[in-house]
Structure prediction request, 195 residues.
Amino acid sequence: MTRLKLSPKEDPIGKQKPQRTDFPEGSWRIGTDGGYLIFRPSGEVFIGQSGKSLLAEKKSLVKGFKVLDSLGNEKPIVQDLGLLAGNIQSPETRVIQHIGDILRSSDDLAAERQIDQFASAMKATRKLLVSNRKMSNEHQRFVGAVQHLATKHRREPTKGEIADFMALNQDEVSKLSKANGFDWLPTNPPGRPKS
Prediction:
């Protein structure tokens, strides 16, 4: 495997420059630690995100639900509901215990608060489950647009192309690019400017 410029270099303003890595079977990867594209010889394009770029999508999905802590991690009840969705036969989870606490509560006001929290956690968990995602928010639409345009053009799409495809303005696409780890995408197409 031939690698070009293994570690990402920082420019003076702190934005990571995209690095290209070529693989012997003809595939190549371009991007940064936050977001990258992998082009396969077959024409397939894989998209990858990590770290902070995924936090923006998660926050967008559960907007309005109080289910993330200050660090952006899911609260334990949301994690347990996710586990329960995958395996309904697991009665040992805190979900059952939480329901029992609500049912045994002697304070009506406290029980109502717990019911509201539980309902909020259920709704948020449904949004977070991969099987229920249908490009329902702008971050998912952005990632889908990047993948579609990269596959179509066999190169990284420009922010202008993404803006046209998503019917957004450049500022909105720039914000989405940064939030999803793709702020390294070019503004203009490759080659000489058209006159």
Summary: Residues 34 and 181 are 4 Å apart (CA to CA). Helices lie at 52-61, 76-86, 94-104, 108-128, 138-153, 159-166, 170-179. Residues 66-132 form one domain.
